[in-house]
């Protein structure tokens, strides 16, 4: 009989398209919102999104995710807006305990439920948004609160943004003989958006997160990580509109570092092309590279662990290794009349140690690939 393990990775590396990118980014579950609309919405909108995710390693299908999300945005009295969403996903497949081999790994069977709610108040030159988010799994619960404000100059050419949030996680690992653990994270973000010309806009966001508590993965052998983690992120965006082509390029660069020793760079380029008949085509390419954590341990050989003494800080989680990655994507959207928009999007993610651009990547890890397929529909009404 197969060993069925319900689990969640309790400490996630900042990988592009892996970990953070599966649901929180793809289905837009909010924390601090870095970009706020400056005006209250004029119409209500109901949206639905479906995501299929499958990752692979050496031809072996590992983790599959099927997720569904429904969101609502409602204007209230011209100066207020209320938004909310509900997400349900099912995770299945097999996951290794360390590196690329299926050593003592069981089959994953997990369901997650996520909810969020936001209330926004709009002023003549700014806005204020309070948010709440909640997520539940069999062995993991998370609840957070956020407050984000914006202020614009009289000309509306410059917008300042600031936000704070707090997240409280509870990890129930009693199934493997451990006690209930917790992790608390407080975050701060500041940003500036500047209109440079009628066709150019730039944005810079800086954020810091301070976390205390349980960061290790209890389902991995001898995974022992520090109880404090500070994460710093700088994000620079530039959008340029090509009037003759009726298209817009979106270029961004993201720098990440944390006290685990991970340093990461990401460059993302999208091009949004308006087509006749209400169609929009958006190709995307994303390049990512990271240095490993200070306590990451390479295997002796592919699939053969290389543990330090049990008491030492260590991890063989390949998401904390040194690697490079690429994401290629294509999105097609269709405006149907004044009220409906439908879209479909495909992304292919691939991660390899030897793609690290500034030297040698981590040894003994096989290439990793993942496919994302999303479908969405939105309805706006008065």
Task: Walk me through this protein's architecture.
With 382 residues, this protein is mainly β. The protein has a single domain, classed as Porin. Helices cover 0% and strands 59% of the residues. The chain has no helices and 17 strands. A 16-stranded antiparallel β-barrel has the order 2-3-4-5-6-7-8-9-10-11-12-13-14-15-16-17.
Gist?
The chain has 382 residues and is mostly beta strands.
CATH architecture field = Beta Barrel
Apparent shape: globular
Low-confidence stretches: 1-36
What's the CATH first level?
Answer: Mainly Beta
What do the pLDDT scores average to?
85
Kindly name the structural category. Answer: mainly beta
- Return the domain count: 1
Largest sheet: spatial strand order: 2-3-4-5-6-7-8-9-10-11-12-13-14-15-16-17
The proportion of residues in beta strands is: over 45%
The counted number of beta strands is 17
Radius of gyration: 21 Å
Q: Distance between termini?
A: 55 Å
As an assembly, this protein is single chain
């Amino acid at each position: 009989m197969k060993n069925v393990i319900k689990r969640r990775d309790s400490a996630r590396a900042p990988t592009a398209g892996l970990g953070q990118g599966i649901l929180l980014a793809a289905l837009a579950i909010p924390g601090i919102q870095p970009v706020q609309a400056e005006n209250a919405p004029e119409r209500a909108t109901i949206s639905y999104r479906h995501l299929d995710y499958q990752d692979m390693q050496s031809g072996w299908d590992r983790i599959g995710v099927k997720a569904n999300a429904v969101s609502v945005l409602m204007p209230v009295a011209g100066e207020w807006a209320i938004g909310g969403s509900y997400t349900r996903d099912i995770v299945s497949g097999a996951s290794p305990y360390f590196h690329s081999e299926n050593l003592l790994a069981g089959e994953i069977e997990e369901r997650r439920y996520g909810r969020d709610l936001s209330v926004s108040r709009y002023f003549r030159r700014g806005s204020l948004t309070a948010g709440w988010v909640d997520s539940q799994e069999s062995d993991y619960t998370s609840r957070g609160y956020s407050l984000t404000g914006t202020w614009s100059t009289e000309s509306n050419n410059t917008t300042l943004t600031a936000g704070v949030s707090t997240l409280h996680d509870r990890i129930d690992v009693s199934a493997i003989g451990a006690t209930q653990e917790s992790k608390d994270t407080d975050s701060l973000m500041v940003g500036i958006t500047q209109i440079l010309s009628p066709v150019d806009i730039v944005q810079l966001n800086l954020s810091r997160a301070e976390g205390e508590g349980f960061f290790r993965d209890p389902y991995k052998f001898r995974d022992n990580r520090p109880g404090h983690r500070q994460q710093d992120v700088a994000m620079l965006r530039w959008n340029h509109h090509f009037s003759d082509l009726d298209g817009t390029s979106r270029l961004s660069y993201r720098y990440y570092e944390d006290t685990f020793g991970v340093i990461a760079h990401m460059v993302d380029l999208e091009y949004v092309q308006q087509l006749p008949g209400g169609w929009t085509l958006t190709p995307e390419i994303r390049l990512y590279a990271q240095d490993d954590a200070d306590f990451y341990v390479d295997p002796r050989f592919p699939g053969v662990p290389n543990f330090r003494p049990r008491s030492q800080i260590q991890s063989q989680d390949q998401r904390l290794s040194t690697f490079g990655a690429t994401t290629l994507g294509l999105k097609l959207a269709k405006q149907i009349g004044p009220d409906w928009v439908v879209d479909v999007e495909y992304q292919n993610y691939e991660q390899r140690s030897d793609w690290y651009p500034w030297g040698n990547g981590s040894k003994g890890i096989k290439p990793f690939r993942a496919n994302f397929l999303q479908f969405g529909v939105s309805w706006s009404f008065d």
